[in-house]
Specification:
The complex is a heterodimer of chains A (about 400) and B (about 230). Chain A is an alpha+beta fold and about 400 residues long. Chain A is about 50% helix and about 15% strand. Chain A has helices spanning about 15-30, 30-70, 90-100, 205-210, 230-240, 250-265, 265-295, 300-310, 310-345, 355-380; strands at about 75, 90, 105-120, 125-130, 145, 155-160, 175-180, 180-190, 200-205, 220, 220-225, 245-250. Chain A is elongated. Helices cover about 30% and strands about 25% of the residues of chain B. In chain B, the strands form 2 sheets. Chain B has a 6-stranded mixed β-sheet with strand order 6-7-8-3-9-10. A 4-stranded antiparallel β-sheet of chain B has the order 2-1-4-5, covered by helices on one side. In chain B, helix 3 (about 105-115) packs across helix 4 (about 120-130) and helix 4 (about 120-130) crosses helix 5 (about 150-160). The chains are: A alpha+beta (about 400), B alpha/beta (about 230). The interface of A and B includes residues 4, 300, 309 and 389 of A. The structure holds adenosine-5'-triphosphate and magnesium ion. The site of adenosine-5'-triphosphate has 12 residues of chain B, from strand 2 and helix 1.
């Protein structure tokens, strides 16, 4: 018999990954308990992280919703304004200065103040009454689920928030209520306009001033539209020069100022950031521990694989594929769970917002976390002597 | 001239350094002919596993020369060893060291795939060898479903699959009863004769000595002449 000859063939790039990846996946699924444990870690991190970020976004959305929806290019606000909240009122002199500034197409006041809605049972509920101006209605209402904006031109007409109808004592279209001592009629409903403050309600500005007893020359904000070809930033600069004792912001600046305010001046950003980070950390630790312990438990197998001729790089491929599978499957399950939870708690109050970006970030981050765990496990395997299989 | 499978000259191995240094091999000279079925015997701690590990390219010698089929093993970088193992070696370990997560045929196919065989080729060859060891009805089973003797036959199949020139076995019958041990050794002997493997078996088991073309004795890190038969 001819003697056996040395075997010089080796797998190509793809086949090598396939071979080791297959073994990695088989090993994963062989130890079901450990598989579930590791996946639990990933799912936990995904759900916690997305829930935190989603709730934060929902909070942010609540705060920014008015500025986001209003059609103003530039906002003139009381000095020191950092969120959507009135301060010391602005006056007619300032409104007229704004109107006469070059590049201003239009400028009009917005009135915003809390009013008390009297309930049929004798109690009362606060609303954030917005005095919006016909015919532009730059200050809302939006998200109409019943009625037309033009209905606000009718006498004593007010829009209310649909999701608060029960709270407002079974409010219906045509219901008559007393709002801060003034008889009003519900002519339409909005949906989801719930800031932290009481729900928005909308009346034409003349009516709103009567209800709120706010004089004609006193304004909460001034909204400005830019003339064609004038950039909001340029207009903001001019207006700020004209009105030094106000704070002037473009729409975008106002939006990012609100974000900055929430992130820096309140505990909200900090606490959400921290709990998101904790979720990721718990996920990382769980995944790292279970990948590590599965490596330690299977030391002899890895030794055998090495003794047969696999390199440390090959073991890296095996762990890499395992990490990808953990990351992808865990993210899928976690996001699915998250989507189900969002469906379950869908209400106008505080439903976490899950943007598409969150899905991408989740996958990237979780795969990253699992890869990190696999690198830690590989460090242990690197030192594994294949000679151990003879012991 | 080159019908030598193994050539060792003054081979030593020292574990550890300094005060903890321990010389497990103290100067081994040995030649094994291609196709030889050799057994390495000796008391516990005499260095048999150490020598086998060097032959198997899982351990580097400290001093001396080791040549495998004309290829130097001494003075190699650690990173070159895995490739040498793939080229030359089939292992049969003491336990059986099969991968429990893989089916019997996948266990045998794995080293073939590491050597670049396609999945299909690897499975064909694996099934072929598994029939040769009498396990054609167990190919889809997992190692944990098999008896000790069956597992060790899988290990034999995995070692000879792909026809590497050198088969190394450390106590292959240690966990088997006498009869099964005989069967497995006989199988290994038959396959290696048919397929042209050189074989080195480390063993304590004197009931399988008669399968060897030659028996080499070791004591205290050195090869010694066979003790006189009683
Ligand atoms: N990694 C190591 N570090 C230090 N000393 C070791 C190491 N491996 C083996 N030794 C020592 O080297 C000597 C030879 O060990 P080896 O395992 O080669 O013997 P053996 O002949 O195979 O013994 P056994 O029949 O018990 O398997 C023993 O004294 C052992 O304690
Ligand atoms: Mg030994």
């Amino acid at each position: 018999m001819k003697a056996a000859q040395p075997i010089r063939t080796r797998p190509g790039f793809f086949r090598r990954w396939l071979t080791l990846g297959t073994i990695g996946v088989r090993m994963m699924f062989f130890d079901r308990l450990k598989l579930l444990g590791t996946l639990f870690g990933v799912v936990f991190a995904v759900v916690l992280g997305n829930f935190q970020v989603g709730t934060f976004l929902a909070l942010l959305f609540k705060n920014r919703m008015f500025v986001e929806n209003a059609v103003a290019d530039v906002w003139i606000t009381p000095p020191g304004t950092r969120q959507f909240q009135g301060g010391s009122p602005l006056n007619d002199a300032q409104l007229n200065r704004a109107r006469s500034t070059p590049g201003v197409a239009w400028a009009e006041p917005l009135v915003l103040q809390t009013a008390q809605l009297k309930l049929p049972n004798g109690g009362s509920e606060p609303v954030s009454l917005v005095g919006t101006r016909a015919p532009r209605f730059a200050g809302g209402p939006w998200n109409l689920v019943a009625g037309e904006t033009e209905a606000l031109l009718q006498p004593d007409a007010v829009f209310f928030e649909d999701s608060e109808r029960e709270k407002f004592g079974g409010l219906n279209l045509g219901s008559v209520r007393e709002l801060s001592g003034h008889h009003v009629r519900a002519v339409g409903f909005t949906w989801g306009l719930l800031p932290f403050a009481p729900a928005f309600a909308f009346a034409e500005q003349t009516l709103a001033r009567e209800i709120l007893k706010q004089p004609a020359g006193s304004h909460t904000f001034l909204m400005v539209g830019a003339a064609p070809g004038v950039s909001p930033v340029e207009l903001r600069e001019r207006l700020q020069r004209e009105l030094p004792d106000t704070r002037v912001m473009t729409r975008d600046e106002y939006l990012s100022e609100i974000l900055t305010y929430i992130l820096t001046a309140t505990q909200i950003g900090m606490s959400f950031g921290l709990s998101t980070f904790m979720g990721l950390l718990v996920g990382l630790i769980t995944v790292a521990l279970s990948m590590f312990s599965s490596v330690v438990d299977n030391m002899r197998q890895f030794g055998t694989i090495k003794a047969i001729g696999a390199t440390t790089g090959d073991l890296g491929r095996l762990l890499f594929v395992q990490a990808i599978v953990y990351g992808v499957v865990g993210s899928l399950v976690g996001l699915g769970l998250m989507a189900a939870m969002v469906q379950g708690i869908r209400n106008a109050q505080l439903t976490p917002i899950l943007p598409n970006l969150a899905v991408g970030i989740t996958f990237t981050l979780m795969i990253g976390v699992c890869l990190l765990a696999s690198v830690l496990a590989l460090v242990r395997l690197r030192k594994l002597e294949p000679a151990m299989v003879f012991r | 001239m080159n019908d030598l499978a193994i050539e060792l000259r003054g081979l030593t191995k020292t574990y550890g350094t300094g005060a903890l240094a321990f010389q497990a091999l103290k100067g081994i000279d040995l030649q094994v002919k291609t196709g030889e079925f050799m057994m390495l015997v000796g008391p516990s701690g005499s260095g048999k596993t150490t020598l086998l590990s060097i032959l198997g390219c899982v351990l580097s010698p400290t001093e001396g020369e080791a040549v495998l089929f004309g290829e130097k093993l001494h003075g190699r970088k650690e990173s070159e060893l895995p490739d040498l193992r793939l080229s030359y070696i089939g292992f049969i370990f003491q336990g059986n060291n099969l991968i429990p997560a893989l089916s019997v045929e996948d266990n045998v196919a794995f080293p073939l795939e590491l050597r670049g065989a396609s999945r299909k080729q690897a499975l064909i060859e694996a099934r072929d060898v598994l029939s040769a060891v009498g396990l054609s009805d167990k190919m889809k089973r997992h190692p944990n479903d098999l008896s000790g003797g069956q597992r060790q036959r899988v290990a034999v199949a995995r070692a000879v699959a792909g026809r590497p020139p050198l088969i190394l076995a450390d106590e292959p019958t240690a966990s088997l009863d006498a009869h099964t041990g005989q069967q497995v050794t006989e199988l290994l002997k038959k396959l290696s004769t048919e397929r042209g493997h050189t074989v080195v078996v480390v063993t304590h088991d004197n009931r399988i000595f008669h399968f060897a073309d030659r028996t080499v004795h070791m004591e205290d890190g050195l090869l010694v002449p066979a003790p006189a038969q009683p």
